[in-house]
Amino acid sequence: MRFLTAGESHGPELLAIIEGLPAGLPLTEEDINPWLEKRQKGYGRGRRMVIEKDQVEFRAGVRAGRTTGAPVALAIKNADFRNWVEIMDPAPGNEPRKKALTAARPGHADLSGGIKYGHKDLRDVLERASARETAMRVAVGAVAMKLLSLLGVEGVGYVPGMAGVWSRVPFSWDLLPRIEESPVRMTDPEAEAEVIRRIDQAKAEGDTLGGVLEARFRGLVPGLGSHVHWDRKLDGRLAQMAMSIPAVKGVEIGPGFENAMKRGSEVHDPIYWSPERGFYRQSNRAGGLEGGMTTGEELVIRAALKPIATLMKPLPTVDVVTHEPKDAARERSDTTAVPAASVILCALSAIVLAQAYLEKFGGDTLEEIQERVERYRERVRAY
Ligand code: EPS
Question: Which of 9, 121, 224, 270 could form a disulfide with 130 if both were Cys (CB 3.0 to 4.6 A apart)?
Answer without folding.
Answer: 9
